[in-house]
Amino acid sequence: MTEETFQNEALRLRPKLTAVARRYTDHEADAEDIVQDALLKLWLMHDDLQSPPDGLAVVLTRNLSINHQRRKKPHYPTLDVADEDTTEDDRIERMMRVIDTLPIKQQIILRLRHMDGMSIRDIATLTTHTEAAVRKILSRARQEVMGKVKG
Question: N or C: which end of the chain has fewer CB within 10 A?
Answer without folding.
Answer: C
